Structure formats: C-alpha cells, structure tokens
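Example record for the data management plan.
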Amino acid sequence: MFGLRTSPTLITLSLCLVLLAWLSPAAYADPIFSFSDSPSPSPITNGNSTITLTGLSGSGQDAGGAGGVNGQILDINLSSTTSSPSSDSFGTPFNFPLTITDTGSLTSNIVNFTGTLSGSLNSTTSSIMVSNVTPLTPTTFNLGGFTYVVTLQSTNAFLTLGDNFVTVNVQAAPVNSSVPEPNSLALWGIVGIFGLGLGYRNVRGKVAV
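Corresponding structural encoding:
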C-alpha cells in the first residue's frame, strides 16, 4: 500500500479557500421592487366639475439599471360640464402615499406624499395644478440591503382635461459602508492566523535542516 502525504501548505491554502467561500457575502441580485399608491380623497367635486384620483401599481420593476426606472404612480382625471366662460374653482389638499416593496426581502417603505389641487376648471379649459407637494424629493431609504432613491417628476404644469399621470423615478444600489463587515473582519483574522502558523512551520523546518 502506498501512503499519500499532503503538504501542510496545501492543507492551509485549502482551509483558507473554504473559509473564504463561507464567510464572503453573497453577490447581490438586481434590486427588484413593486409599488402601489392609494390616493384620497376621491372623487373631488365642485359644481359641475370633478377630479378623480386613481392609484396605480406595478411589479417586477428593476431599479438597478442605468438611470433606474420611471413609474406612473397616480392618475388625476379632470372632467367638467360647466360651460365656458364659467368655471369651478378648487383648492383641495390630497395625499397619495406610495408604497415601495423590495421583492427579494419583502420589506416595504411608504413615502407619504401630500399636495394641493388648485385652480379652476370648465368644459374646455383647465388651470388646475398640483402644488405644495411634500416631502421634497429625492427621498432615500434602505430596503433589503439596497439604498432606494425615489424622485417625484416635475408637476409644475397645468393639468389637462382627461387623464394626467404623476410619475416617479426609482433607483437602487447596494448599501455602502466604509466599515468592514463582521464577516470580512473574521475572514481576514482567520487567514492571518493561518498565515502566521504557516510561517512558523516553515521557520521550524529550516532550523531543523
């Protein structure tokens, strides 16, 4: 029978590789999220004019691509039977809380948007605007190991009769930290110990020769 001798160096390197595979953090997949919006009040009526707010939703959104992803979160519909030149006036506060859910971790965050619908409306003309929107964007929060950034697109324009969509941009990237993670610290500490042990054995071998 032949015996198989294994080099101490090979054993040490093998153990280090196993520890590296075990302790290293897993690679991040793309940040995928879903969203939903629940506006209120709705409908908003004055005279013969009505503003209807409808929340929108979406899933499978990839926030990790270049520039993130734009998503329509709210439909503001204007309708009126008031004859021109008469019009109906509005100055109504409303809210449209946006829920972002990270698909990988199933964790959520709600951005509580509020604003005011103000201006006048008749069957042919609208001066309705969305104003006084809070919170000021971009809004940043962490979900599932990612930093999400939500930015509301500009609303500085008159809304038109029919459907008007409010849009946000969502971007996400892995959470950054300047402090080494515990796993990393443990990894390098163990590798250092093995390295010292290897060096000590090599020195003993040379002295013994």
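Summary line stored alongside the record: Residues 84 and 124 are 7 Å apart (CA to CA).
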